[in-house]
Amino acid sequence: MSRLIKAALLLLVIFSIAFGIILFRPSLVLSTLVRSNAAELGFEISSMLANRLGPNSTELAELVLLSDEQEIRMQGIRAEYSLSQLLAGRMQTIHIEHIELRWTTASEAITEEESTTLASLLEAFDAVPVETLILPELRLLASNEDYEIALGLQSPPLHIEGRAKLRAVPDTVIEFDIRRSSPTDLEVVSNVLLAGELAADANIALKARDTDTRVAFTSTLPVQSFRDQLAQYLPADTVILNGRLSLQGNFEVRQIFENPSFANISIRLDSPNSQLLVNQESLLGSADMQLQLPLDIMGSIADLSGEFQFELSPLVGIGNWSLEDAHINAQTKFDNTALQCTSPSSCNMQSDWQSDLLSWRYDAYSGEELSLSAALRFNYSNEEMRVAADLVQIAIPAINSSTDSTGLSISSNLQLNEVELRVGDFISGGFNFSSSELKLGNSYADVISPAYAGKVQLEQDILTGILELDVNQSLRLGVGLQHFFLRDTGDAMLQIAAHDFSDAAPLSSLFSLQDFDADIVAGAV
Question: Under DSSP, is residue 40 helix (H, G, I), strand (E, B) or coil?
């Protein structure tokens, strides 16, 4: 039996006994008679203070009920009734000025059979033996303080107005107005406030089922209100240029009144022009992005402490990135994107990344149709963002130089291994790299079978790098460099391995010289 029905029946018992005391047994003490009835309904009366007992109404200053899982504290209770109604097991009106309901048992200890569903709650309202129930101030408190809900309730017809606070999202208040539209359906109008500003408004339809609640919603998000909140989780100054976004979706809620969890979440994010416009500024440069919408999000939320997991539909965007003498215009796609968080401050994400650089420029060098791909891993914890990839593949069809008049030609397939970037109090990271299918030459000569490999490491303000260049597996060149950003100084070292020329290993085995018939077949470097 629902706790609501039990509490209402207990109030009926209390007021019926009060009526009997006045008419028949005034010598009996009210609390003595009530305690045995409360025990049968699963309650223990911790405190009860009666103000007035009358033949048509009763007023209690306070009533505190305890059960294995809950504490119900009521103040300012007034009941109106007639003898015929009491004999029929009903009352005219119950008005309770203040109710505080606190779950005293950890929610995970409550079994599914005992949990309150929306269906059982609506059935409970139908079964309450009261013509009119008025609760101006009802507070619902979780045992672990994950949420706090304050509301006013009147029935019939069922009408609830209130607000909720969630520990997982501080400075957030959810306002709601709930009206019953059918025996199993509720219509909800809700506003979400962030730091007192409207962050979202929503129209929600709830359908009660045996073990869960089906929810469908549409929502509008004014972007301005949550720009500051995004800054807490992103490693750059991020500005969403859209005026508003829209959400629509559906999901299922389980244990809605004890430890809510959300399953089969399906959400679609869209905007009036089907684009999400984003601008970012950081130490890594500035970027302008146009993301294609709609974006579909599927997943589940384990509890209100911030534990959740989501999968995203393919995300495609076109944008520009600039840093000093570097500029990129690219089309990017993220596929198979999955996000998992154990709390708002501890999250992991993975995604398959593909970028096609429609054009790029660095200093005097430029190119087109360069492509990059990687399986990326993101981690946010301890106020630090980490990005990693086991392998980044880069295809460079051609590199052009605006200052070279000799027809410089460079193309390569480049692999970056063990890539990691950390952005927190400091920026650090590194990667190893190697090449395949490298072609290097100009109008005078081509390098035969060139290859290169090396390593780059950044720790706070120190950048170190190693480059090893190999020509036809014979001539080897090594470069080491170190740069100190705070001092704006550095050093470099160049080494060439000894190489002997011979008939079997002439200069032409290293370089193909255009319009030059001579060769070197002896000597050493």
Answer: helix
